[in-house]
Amino acid sequence: MDFIDLRSEFQRDRDRIIHSKSFRRLAHKTQVFLDPEGDHYRTRLTHTLEVMQIARGLARALDLSEDLAEAASLGHDLGHTPFGHAGEKVLNGLYPGGFKHNEQSLRVAEKLERNFEGLNLTPEVRDAVLCHTGNKQAQTLEGRIVRFADRIAYINHDIDDALRAKILKPEDLPRDLTDILGQTHSRRINTMVNAIITESRDKDDIIMRADILGAMEKMRAFLFGTVYENNMAKTEEKKAEAMLEHLYYYFVKNYDLLLPEYEAIIAGEGVERAVCDYIAGMTDRYAISSYCKIFVPKTWKEE
């Protein structure tokens, strides 16, 4: 029997996601800090791997499908834009139908990958990808795990990156929250994960102990005020937003420059949908390169 026949459906989904172009591009997409010079800041890919690690651990502890949790975690951000949530905000404002990265992740999996044939993922994984954020709850417990794992991962690694960037000092973290969640990165993750395991075991839902959930949400609010909206951390964000806006309008006007594969989307869903898909799929450096190629004049070289 070939290896390919030994895999479960969710293992097959995992492999298709890992081998997709969209997954590889996550290595060059912003998590929080735009194009950081240091080698150790998170990217959208390393964030995805941390979500996967937490989700698998939770699924194992609760005797659920680790393979489903893993596949959904690996696919949850396939549709994220260049420059993180700054890019998402731009496309949401420009594209008439609005833009949400979880919906785009599902669109990537169902339609855009594999030369616009999609990855043919299971309904359970597609549902978990769509519902990892937003108002809709995933149908499976594993999908609900991914939603928690995503938040646990980014709250804690964003604290770590903010400390590394000297946006925060350890003493800046609210003492009342670190007393509950823990003083270190690993301790905080352990606290949050255990608060889910103890509350969810033998239940038909994935829930976190109320006091830990409250502290986690307060820590998230603290990060919004001090990191995500910090002027030092976001110095270049307005430039990135303006750059994507210029690219969007340029390709709407010059849609013939899009790859030939986008012709079907243009014919079926319109030019702006095709341009939105094209820009959302860009990495940070490809967006910058495209902008420079189109809008920055080249030095004249005499033949």
* Total of DSSP H or I helical runs spanning 4+ residues: 16
Proportion of residues in helical segments: 55-70%
Topology as a string of helices (H) and strands (E): HHHHHHHHHHHHHHHH
Radius of gyration: 20 Å
SS-derived structural category: mainly alpha
Largest sheet: none
Kindly report the average pLDDT value: 94
CATH-defined fold name of the largest domain: Hypothetical protein af1432
Q: Alpha-carbon distance between the termini?
A: 62 Å
Shape by Cα distribution:
globular
Number of domains: 2
Name of the CATH superfamily of the largest domain: Hypothetical protein af1432
Provide the CATH top-level class of the largest domain. Answer: Mainly Alpha
Please tell me about this protein's structure:
By secondary structure, the protein is mainly alpha-helical. It folds into 2 domains: 3-82 and 99-232, Hypothetical protein af1432 (Orthogonal Bundle); 238-295, no CATH class. Helix content is 64%, strand content 0%. The chain is built from 16 helices and no strands. The chain has helices at residues 3-6, 9-18, 21-25, 44-61, 66-75, 84-94, 101-116, 123-130, 141-164, 175-181, 185-200, 210-228, 237-253, 263-269, 271-280, 284-295. The longest helix has 24 residues, at 141-164. It starts with a helix and ends in an 8-residue tail after the last helix.
